[in-house]
Amino acid sequence: MPWYTFEPSWEPFRDLDQLRREMDRLWEQAIGPERYRRRVGVFPLLNISEDKENFYVRAELAGVHPEDIEITLEDCKLRVRGERKIPTEEKVVGYHRREREAGSFRRVIRLPERLDAAKVEAAFKNGILTVTLAKPEEVKPKQITVKCV
């Protein structure tokens, strides 16, 4: 029988998570629950990719209505604005965990080159916004034919 067992009392991830939750609770008490939730806000996740013809920006916008999304393109900057609205509870409930947030969001994506603004398209399907940005002809890769002389 061992006379001594080591049980670590310090678990860094558990302790950090507990500290974060305590800080969230203190902030919420200090500035009020409604203002605190607005401060946290909505931050949609993005994927940006490209192929020979286009750039693609895909944003995860579950729970956002397409009519609440505004997209602008100016000086190689794509701006996506919108608002996620979550219906309020009809009665007072106590949350055990609340990760879905409501509110306005804004993402600005700087693109590496000028784009053909006339060929920008946006589609929304299953909570994913896809913006397709056509590259201008002068920056698209060109295949050069070798001539026999």
TrEMBL record:
PROSITE patterns: SHSP
Residues spanning the signal sequence: none
Keyword line: Stress response
Keyword ATP-binding on entry: no
Domain SHSP: 37-149
Family: Belongs to the small heat shock protein (HSP20) family.
Name of the protein in question: Heat shock protein Hsp20
PANTHER family with a match to the protein in the record: HEAT-SHOCK PROTEIN 20 FAMILY MEMBER (PTHR11527)
Origin superkingdom: Bacteria
Residues spanning the membrane: none
